[in-house]
Amino acid sequence: MKKLTYSGLIDKLYRDNEYSLPKKKIKLLLEQISKSMVDELNNNQTSIVLDLGTLTVYKTKQKKFINPKTKQESIVSPSQKIVFKPYGKLKTKTGKK
User: Fold this and answer.
1) How far is it, in rounded angstroms, from Cα 55 to Cα 46?
2) Rounded distance between C-alpha atoms, residue 24 and residue 19, angstroms
3) What is the β-pairing status of strands 63-66 and 73-76?
């Protein structure tokens, strides 16, 4: 699996764009999109990206953890995680089920 970095995404969009946008404008556009998504997640706990999927914030519970080597018991603090659920169109386009 090849990972796509932020700068790699900017480069790919720059090479593939039909509108001759400069890299700086592409970077600003991506920054604005990600800022909008973060703001939406902070306000509503859910962000819908049309034709792609849904990002949802959920809270994990506090858990007990036992280190198998030392047998020492620890507590894992509750935290927040983000989950992406792709829409059917995206799954169809990528060939994933």
Assistant:
1) 6
2) 14
3) antiparallel
Tokens of 84: 């992406």
Determine how β-strand 46-49 pairs with β-strand 73-76. unpaired
Decide which of 2 and 5 is more confident.
5
* 47-30-92 Cα angle (round to 5): 60
Using a 10 angstrom Cβ sphere, with 0-12 exposed, 13-18 middle and 19 or more buried, the burial of residue 47 is: buried
The pTM is what? 0.64
Cα(15)–Cα(39) distance, rounded to whole angstroms? Answer: 29
Predicted confidence (pLDDT) per residue in 38-67, tens digit:
898 888 888 888 778 899 998 999 999 999
